[in-house]
Amino acid sequence: MYPEEYQNPQPTDESLQSPEESPTSTNEQTENLSVEPVLESTTHNSTVDTEQNNLTSVLPIANSQASNSKDEFVVQQQEEITTLGLEDQAEVQATQQRLAELQKQEQALKAEIADLQAAYKTLQAQMNQTQILMGNFVQETLSSLEQRKNALQISVEQLERRQERIRNEMRTTFAGASQELAIRVQGFKDYLTGSLQDLAAAAEQLQLVSAPKPEPEKVIIKEVRPAETQPGTPQFAQQQFQDTTKQIRRLIDQYRTKPDYYGPPWQLRRTFEPVHAERVSNWFFNQGGRGALRTMGSRLQNILVSSAIISILHKLYGDRVRTLVLANTPERLGEWRRGLQDCLGIGRPDFGPDRGVVLFESPEAVAQKAERLEKSNQLPLIIIDDSEELISLALLQFPLWLAFAPDPKMMRSYEDDF
């Protein structure tokens, strides 16, 4: 960096002091070597003077070189300071620009924070409103569910009371207890059938020789065909229908003395007491198939009497008979449906507008249906439940109708059933 300084080194203090010390050393040598010749001392002195002159001529040159190198160093230092100043100014400008950018970012962040705070407040208000609405909705729903729960509990209690009452009726009546007896009798019947079959098989294995029997004479029986009558309105109370009367009495006695618990559909499958037979006979022979009977005290007993009448009519007229049951509530109609299924051995397919049994809640619909059945040569049988306080006059025009009148001595509150 400084070539002149390295090429021309500055003289040190020792080199400057050497000419001053040289005379002293020369004098000492002269004193010590007094025995040397005078020529040598003269020569030596001249040599010393020559060296001093050389040193004196070199010293100004070295001083000039040192001053020049010092000026160059100062200039170079100033240039470096100027360069550093320019660089610092550029850095300051860059720092200012960076600071301005950071301030802009700070303002943008503050604006964004303000927007977020406003959105947060809005969302919080909406959330509070939603919570209030949800609370009101849950409260209303809980109230509705509690009301429904209370209503269901009341309905369950009513159904339990009704079930208990029906069970008590079934225990106290022989018709209800006869089902268990019928099951036992059927089991004993199956046992006897199996035993007889085993006995017959054992008898066939025995080798028995029987004497030949004379053949009986053949008796020719001439079939007498009764005069065919046109199907019309049944008249059970008239004297000319003696055959029909005998058949009805025979069927009533059969139901009372020889009940068939596993008979075909539309045949009575329950125990028939004398009191039931008396009511059925009275309706057929005294009232001519059109009249009211006093209730038996329970709907199950009324259904049993009605089932016997329906079974007898099906024996006489077949599928022409269509039973129309009238009751004022669906629950009572449900009892009639279950009771008829149990007593007659029929199923759900036998209930319907074009089936053997039709259920109604209004007398007007019953009258319209009965008129259509008569026009199609069918035989409608109208059965009116004892819960009907009034009987429509439109129902009394048909040839077959049965109404159960409540007993004044045994008034039952049907409203307790529900």
TrEMBL record:
Pfam families linked to this entry: DUF3086
Annotated coiled-coil segments of the chain: 92-169
Residue ranges with Polar residues bias: 7-33, 40-52
InterPro entries in alphabetical order: DUF3086
Keyword Coiled coil: yes
Region entry Disordered, spans: 1-52
The protein, known as: DUF3086 domain-containing protein
